[in-house]
Protein 1
Amino acid sequence: MMLTRRIKKINGIEYWYEDIPYYDKEKKQIRHKSKYLGRNVNGEPVRVRDALNSSENICPVSKPLKAYNYGELLPLQWITDELKIGEYLGDLFNGKERNMILSMVFNRIARPAAMYNLKTWYESSALFLKWPELPLKSQNISNLLSKVGDSDIPSTFRVKCSEISGQKAH
Protein backbone atom coordinates (compact mmCIF):
# COMPACT_ATOMS: atom_id res chain seq x y z
CA MET A 1 0.00 0.00 0.00
CA MET A 2 1.49 3.31 -1.15
CA LEU A 3 1.22 6.70 0.42
CA THR A 4 -0.27 9.23 -1.96
CA ARG A 5 -0.28 13.01 -1.86
CA ARG A 6 -3.14 15.14 -3.07
CA ILE A 7 -4.17 18.78 -3.14
CA LYS A 8 -7.53 19.69 -1.65
CA LYS A 9 -9.11 23.09 -2.32
CA ILE A 10 -10.97 24.57 0.66
CA ASN A 11 -12.56 28.04 0.38
CA GLY A 12 -10.35 28.81 -2.60
CA ILE A 13 -7.11 27.91 -0.82
CA GLU A 14 -5.13 24.82 -1.79
CA TYR A 15 -3.84 22.45 0.91
CA TRP A 16 -1.61 19.37 0.65
CA TYR A 17 -2.75 16.11 2.26
CA GLU A 18 -1.18 12.68 2.45
CA ASP A 19 -3.51 9.69 2.10
CA ILE A 20 -2.44 6.72 4.19
CA PRO A 21 -4.16 3.46 3.22
CA TYR A 22 -4.91 0.81 5.84
CA TYR A 23 -6.94 -2.40 5.97
CA ASP A 24 -10.17 -2.26 8.00
CA LYS A 25 -10.70 -5.75 9.46
CA GLU A 26 -14.34 -5.10 10.40
CA LYS A 27 -15.46 -3.95 6.95
CA LYS A 28 -12.86 -6.09 5.19
CA GLN A 29 -11.77 -3.36 2.86
CA ILE A 30 -9.01 -0.81 2.38
CA ARG A 31 -9.69 2.60 3.89
CA HIS A 32 -7.67 5.83 3.97
CA LYS A 33 -6.53 8.21 6.67
CA SER A 34 -5.72 11.75 5.66
CA LYS A 35 -2.80 13.69 7.13
CA TYR A 36 -2.46 17.46 6.73
CA LEU A 37 0.90 18.49 5.23
CA GLY A 38 0.45 22.22 4.73
CA ARG A 39 -0.68 24.97 2.42
CA ASN A 40 0.21 24.75 -1.25
CA VAL A 41 2.94 27.33 -1.91
CA ASN A 42 4.67 27.10 -5.31
CA GLY A 43 3.75 23.41 -5.56
CA GLU A 44 5.20 22.52 -2.16
CA PRO A 45 3.45 21.98 1.19
CA VAL A 46 4.28 24.63 3.80
CA ARG A 47 2.80 24.41 7.29
CA VAL A 48 1.17 27.74 8.12
CA ARG A 49 2.30 27.91 11.75
CA ASP A 50 5.87 27.12 10.78
CA ALA A 51 5.70 29.83 8.12
CA LEU A 52 4.49 32.38 10.69
CA ASN A 53 7.71 31.85 12.63
CA SER A 54 9.85 32.29 9.51
CA SER A 55 10.26 35.31 7.27
CA GLU A 56 7.71 34.07 4.69
CA ASN A 57 4.36 35.84 4.81
CA ILE A 58 1.94 33.10 3.84
CA CYS A 59 -0.81 33.90 6.30
CA PRO A 60 -1.62 37.65 6.58
CA VAL A 61 -2.92 37.34 10.16
CA SER A 62 -0.51 36.19 12.84
CA LYS A 63 -1.41 34.74 16.19
CA PRO A 64 -0.89 37.19 19.08
CA LEU A 65 1.85 36.20 21.49
CA LYS A 66 0.15 37.58 24.61
CA ALA A 67 -2.92 39.68 25.34
CA TYR A 68 -2.90 42.06 28.30
CA ASN A 69 -5.90 43.48 30.15
CA TYR A 70 -5.91 47.29 30.04
CA GLY A 71 -9.55 48.30 30.45
CA GLU A 72 -10.16 47.62 34.10
CA LEU A 73 -6.90 49.32 35.11
CA LEU A 74 -7.18 52.59 33.18
CA PRO A 75 -9.58 54.33 35.62
CA LEU A 76 -7.56 53.10 38.60
CA GLN A 77 -4.30 54.37 37.12
CA TRP A 78 -5.89 57.71 36.26
CA ILE A 79 -7.24 58.14 39.81
CA THR A 80 -3.88 57.16 41.28
CA ASP A 81 -2.10 59.74 39.11
CA GLU A 82 -4.64 62.50 39.81
CA LEU A 83 -4.49 62.01 43.57
CA LYS A 84 -0.68 61.55 43.47
CA ILE A 85 -0.99 58.37 45.51
CA GLY A 86 2.03 56.87 43.77
CA GLU A 87 4.16 59.84 44.88
CA TYR A 88 3.03 59.51 48.52
CA LEU A 89 3.76 55.79 48.48
CA GLY A 90 7.12 56.53 46.85
CA ASP A 91 8.08 58.52 49.95
CA LEU A 92 7.29 55.52 52.17
CA PHE A 93 8.55 52.60 50.04
CA ASN A 94 11.26 51.83 47.51
CA GLY A 95 10.20 51.51 43.86
CA LYS A 96 9.42 47.78 43.76
CA GLU A 97 7.57 47.82 47.09
CA ARG A 98 5.51 50.82 45.95
CA ASN A 99 4.57 49.02 42.73
CA MET A 100 3.74 45.84 44.65
CA ILE A 101 1.42 47.80 46.96
CA LEU A 102 -0.31 49.45 43.98
CA SER A 103 -0.65 46.08 42.23
CA MET A 104 -2.28 44.57 45.30
CA VAL A 105 -4.65 47.55 45.62
CA PHE A 106 -5.57 47.45 41.91
CA ASN A 107 -6.22 43.72 42.18
CA ARG A 108 -8.47 44.14 45.23
CA ILE A 109 -10.53 46.78 43.42
CA ALA A 110 -10.62 45.44 39.84
CA ARG A 111 -10.62 41.67 40.17
CA PRO A 112 -10.08 40.32 43.68
CA ALA A 113 -8.02 37.17 43.82
CA ALA A 114 -6.31 35.26 46.57
CA MET A 115 -2.84 36.60 47.29
CA TYR A 116 -1.20 33.41 46.03
CA ASN A 117 -2.94 34.04 42.65
CA LEU A 118 -1.87 37.68 42.47
CA LYS A 119 1.15 36.97 40.25
CA THR A 120 -1.02 35.20 37.65
CA TRP A 121 -3.42 38.16 37.52
CA TYR A 122 -0.53 40.64 37.37
CA GLU A 123 1.16 38.83 34.45
CA SER A 124 -2.03 39.05 32.38
CA SER A 125 -2.58 42.73 33.12
CA ALA A 126 -1.05 45.86 31.61
CA LEU A 127 0.82 46.35 34.89
CA PHE A 128 3.23 43.65 33.73
CA LEU A 129 4.24 45.93 30.84
CA LYS A 130 4.45 49.02 33.06
CA TRP A 131 6.32 47.35 35.95
CA PRO A 132 8.02 44.20 34.64
CA GLU A 133 9.33 41.56 37.00
CA LEU A 134 7.64 42.48 40.27
CA PRO A 135 8.46 39.88 42.94
CA LEU A 136 4.84 38.94 43.65
CA LYS A 137 5.51 35.58 45.27
CA SER A 138 3.48 34.88 48.38
CA GLN A 139 6.54 35.12 50.65
CA ASN A 140 7.46 38.57 49.28
CA ILE A 141 3.86 39.74 49.70
CA SER A 142 3.79 38.44 53.28
CA ASN A 143 7.05 40.22 54.11
CA LEU A 144 5.79 43.49 52.63
CA LEU A 145 2.45 43.31 54.46
CA SER A 146 4.26 42.47 57.68
CA LYS A 147 6.49 45.52 57.18
CA VAL A 148 3.42 47.71 56.69
CA GLY A 149 1.62 46.24 59.71
CA ASP A 150 4.61 46.62 62.04
CA SER A 151 5.29 50.26 61.16
CA ASP A 152 3.58 53.63 61.21
CA ILE A 153 3.24 53.65 57.40
CA PRO A 154 -0.60 53.62 57.38
CA SER A 155 -0.89 56.65 59.68
CA THR A 156 1.90 58.52 57.85
CA PHE A 157 0.16 57.88 54.52
CA ARG A 158 -3.18 59.07 55.94
CA VAL A 159 -1.57 62.29 57.24
CA LYS A 160 0.08 62.98 53.85
CA CYS A 161 -3.23 62.48 52.01
CA SER A 162 -5.08 64.70 54.51
CA GLU A 163 -2.53 67.51 54.18
CA ILE A 164 -2.91 67.57 50.41
CA SER A 165 -6.70 67.56 50.51
CA GLY A 166 -6.69 70.39 53.05
CA GLN A 167 -8.41 68.41 55.78
CA LYS A 168 -7.14 67.98 59.28
CA ALA A 169 -5.95 64.45 60.19
CA HIS A 170 -7.35 63.01 63.40
Note: The first strand starts at residue 4 and ends at 10.
Protein 2
Amino acid sequence: MAQSCILIALAGFITLLVQATGKEIAISREQNVWHKANATFYGDMTGAKTMACGYGDLFKQGYSLQTTALSTALFDGGLACGACFEIRCVDTPQWCIPNAGTITVTATNFCPPNYQKQDGNWCNPPQRHFDLSMPTFMKIAYYKAGIVPVRYRRVLCNKQGRVKFEGNGNRYWLLVLVYNV
Protein backbone atom coordinates (compact mmCIF):
# COMPACT_ATOMS: atom_id res chain seq x y z
CA MET A 1 0.00 0.00 0.00
CA ALA A 2 2.74 2.47 0.98
CA GLN A 3 4.73 1.63 -2.16
CA SER A 4 1.78 2.31 -4.44
CA CYS A 5 1.19 5.67 -2.70
CA ILE A 6 4.82 6.60 -3.23
CA LEU A 7 4.64 5.60 -6.90
CA ILE A 8 1.48 7.65 -7.40
CA ALA A 9 3.08 10.64 -5.68
CA LEU A 10 6.23 10.26 -7.80
CA ALA A 11 4.18 10.07 -11.02
CA GLY A 12 2.31 13.19 -9.97
CA PHE A 13 5.56 14.99 -9.22
CA ILE A 14 7.02 14.09 -12.63
CA THR A 15 3.84 15.35 -14.29
CA LEU A 16 4.15 18.64 -12.40
CA LEU A 17 7.78 19.02 -13.46
CA VAL A 18 6.85 18.51 -17.12
CA GLN A 19 4.04 21.06 -16.80
CA ALA A 20 6.35 23.50 -15.00
CA THR A 21 8.89 23.26 -17.81
CA GLY A 22 6.19 24.15 -20.31
CA LYS A 23 5.11 27.08 -18.15
CA GLU A 24 8.72 28.31 -17.90
CA ILE A 25 8.90 28.51 -21.69
CA ALA A 26 5.61 30.44 -21.79
CA ILE A 27 6.78 32.71 -18.96
CA SER A 28 10.07 33.49 -20.69
CA ARG A 29 8.09 34.61 -23.77
CA GLU A 30 5.95 36.89 -21.59
CA GLN A 31 8.77 38.46 -19.56
CA ASN A 32 8.83 41.63 -21.64
CA VAL A 33 5.07 42.22 -21.36
CA TRP A 34 4.08 44.55 -18.51
CA HIS A 35 0.46 44.53 -17.31
CA LYS A 36 -1.55 47.05 -15.27
CA ALA A 37 -2.62 46.29 -11.70
CA ASN A 38 -2.82 47.85 -8.24
CA ALA A 39 -0.99 47.06 -5.02
CA THR A 40 -1.75 47.50 -1.34
CA PHE A 41 -0.19 46.03 1.79
CA TYR A 42 -1.26 43.94 4.76
CA GLY A 43 0.01 43.45 8.26
CA ASP A 44 2.81 45.27 9.98
CA MET A 45 6.58 45.32 9.63
CA THR A 46 6.88 41.68 10.69
CA GLY A 47 4.64 40.16 8.03
CA ALA A 48 2.36 37.22 8.67
CA LYS A 49 1.96 33.53 7.96
CA THR A 50 -0.17 32.73 4.95
CA MET A 51 -2.21 29.63 4.38
CA ALA A 52 -3.99 29.73 1.00
CA CYS A 53 -1.10 28.09 -0.84
CA GLY A 54 -0.12 25.86 2.08
CA TYR A 55 3.34 27.30 2.69
CA GLY A 56 2.85 27.90 6.41
CA ASP A 57 5.85 29.70 7.92
CA LEU A 58 7.24 31.73 5.03
CA PHE A 59 10.52 32.39 6.82
CA LYS A 60 11.10 28.68 7.42
CA GLN A 61 10.38 27.96 3.76
CA GLY A 62 12.83 30.67 2.61
CA TYR A 63 10.39 33.23 1.24
CA SER A 64 10.91 35.93 3.91
CA LEU A 65 8.60 38.91 3.31
CA GLN A 66 8.97 38.98 -0.49
CA THR A 67 5.48 37.54 -0.88
CA THR A 68 2.07 38.58 -2.10
CA ALA A 69 -1.57 37.62 -1.97
CA LEU A 70 -3.23 37.70 -5.39
CA SER A 71 -6.70 38.83 -6.41
CA THR A 72 -9.07 36.32 -7.99
CA ALA A 73 -8.04 37.43 -11.49
CA LEU A 74 -4.37 36.61 -10.81
CA PHE A 75 -4.73 33.68 -8.37
CA ASP A 76 -6.18 31.42 -11.07
CA GLY A 77 -7.85 29.03 -8.65
CA GLY A 78 -4.53 28.37 -6.89
CA LEU A 79 -2.50 27.63 -10.03
CA ALA A 80 -0.49 30.82 -9.43
CA CYS A 81 0.75 29.61 -6.02
CA GLY A 82 4.54 29.81 -6.07
CA ALA A 83 4.63 32.02 -9.18
CA CYS A 84 6.98 35.01 -9.17
CA PHE A 85 6.12 38.52 -10.30
CA GLU A 86 8.25 41.60 -10.89
CA ILE A 87 6.39 44.76 -9.85
CA ARG A 88 7.08 48.48 -10.17
CA CYS A 89 5.12 51.49 -8.90
CA VAL A 90 3.88 53.76 -11.72
CA ASP A 91 1.87 56.87 -12.59
CA THR A 92 1.81 58.43 -9.10
CA PRO A 93 5.04 60.33 -8.41
CA GLN A 94 3.66 61.57 -5.09
CA TRP A 95 3.35 57.97 -3.84
CA CYS A 96 6.02 56.03 -5.75
CA ILE A 97 9.49 56.09 -4.20
CA PRO A 98 11.82 57.78 -6.72
CA ASN A 99 14.27 55.41 -8.43
CA ALA A 100 12.95 52.48 -6.40
CA GLY A 101 13.18 50.12 -9.33
CA THR A 102 11.29 46.85 -9.09
CA ILE A 103 10.56 44.19 -6.52
CA THR A 104 10.17 40.48 -7.15
CA VAL A 105 7.61 38.60 -5.07
CA THR A 106 6.29 35.06 -4.81
CA ALA A 107 2.56 34.35 -4.73
CA THR A 108 1.79 32.60 -1.44
CA ASN A 109 -1.75 33.65 -0.64
CA PHE A 110 -5.19 34.56 -1.96
CA CYS A 111 -6.74 38.00 -1.54
CA PRO A 112 -10.43 37.09 -1.26
CA PRO A 113 -13.13 39.15 -2.94
CA ASN A 114 -15.68 41.01 -0.86
CA TYR A 115 -18.85 41.25 -2.90
CA GLN A 116 -20.49 43.45 -0.25
CA LYS A 117 -18.14 46.24 -1.40
CA GLN A 118 -18.69 46.52 -5.15
CA ASP A 119 -16.49 49.61 -5.51
CA GLY A 120 -14.26 49.24 -2.47
CA ASN A 121 -12.56 45.87 -2.64
CA TRP A 122 -9.48 45.70 -4.82
CA CYS A 123 -9.55 41.90 -4.85
CA ASN A 124 -12.95 41.62 -6.53
CA PRO A 125 -12.94 40.24 -10.08
CA PRO A 126 -11.92 41.30 -12.66
CA GLN A 127 -9.35 43.51 -10.95
CA ARG A 128 -5.69 42.51 -10.97
CA HIS A 129 -4.31 43.22 -7.54
CA PHE A 130 -1.28 42.44 -5.37
CA ASP A 131 -1.61 42.53 -1.57
CA LEU A 132 2.03 42.80 -0.47
CA SER A 133 3.64 42.56 2.94
CA MET A 134 4.11 46.06 4.34
CA PRO A 135 7.95 46.01 4.19
CA THR A 136 7.85 44.87 0.58
CA PHE A 137 5.26 47.52 -0.40
CA MET A 138 7.42 50.20 1.23
CA LYS A 139 10.32 49.34 -1.10
CA ILE A 140 8.37 50.82 -4.04
CA ALA A 141 5.79 53.18 -2.48
CA TYR A 142 5.25 55.34 0.57
CA TYR A 143 3.19 53.95 3.47
CA LYS A 144 0.65 56.79 3.32
CA ALA A 145 -0.27 55.89 -0.28
CA GLY A 146 -2.20 52.83 0.89
CA ILE A 147 -2.80 51.74 -2.69
CA VAL A 148 -0.80 52.45 -5.83
CA PRO A 149 -1.03 51.62 -9.52
CA VAL A 150 1.67 49.20 -10.60
CA ARG A 151 2.94 47.42 -13.66
CA TYR A 152 3.84 43.77 -13.32
CA ARG A 153 5.14 40.87 -15.30
CA ARG A 154 5.48 37.20 -14.56
CA VAL A 155 9.11 36.14 -14.17
CA LEU A 156 10.95 32.94 -13.47
CA CYS A 157 11.60 32.41 -9.80
CA ASN A 158 15.19 32.61 -8.63
CA LYS A 159 15.26 30.43 -5.53
CA GLN A 160 18.27 29.92 -3.30
CA GLY A 161 19.14 26.51 -1.97
CA ARG A 162 17.93 23.07 -2.94
CA VAL A 163 14.53 21.64 -3.74
CA LYS A 164 12.73 20.92 -0.47
CA PHE A 165 10.13 18.25 0.19
CA GLU A 166 7.70 18.07 3.07
CA GLY A 167 5.37 15.14 3.55
CA ASN A 168 2.40 14.47 5.77
CA GLY A 169 -0.52 12.13 5.80
CA ASN A 170 -2.06 9.01 7.24
CA ARG A 171 -3.25 5.70 5.86
CA TYR A 172 -5.96 7.43 3.77
CA TRP A 173 -4.07 10.30 2.14
CA LEU A 174 -0.59 11.61 1.42
CA LEU A 175 0.39 15.29 1.14
CA VAL A 176 3.71 16.13 -0.48
CA LEU A 177 4.71 19.81 -0.66
CA VAL A 178 7.60 20.68 -2.96
CA TYR A 179 9.44 23.99 -2.39
CA ASN A 180 12.13 25.87 -4.30
CA VAL A 181 11.21 24.33 -7.64
Note: The radius of gyration is 18 Å.
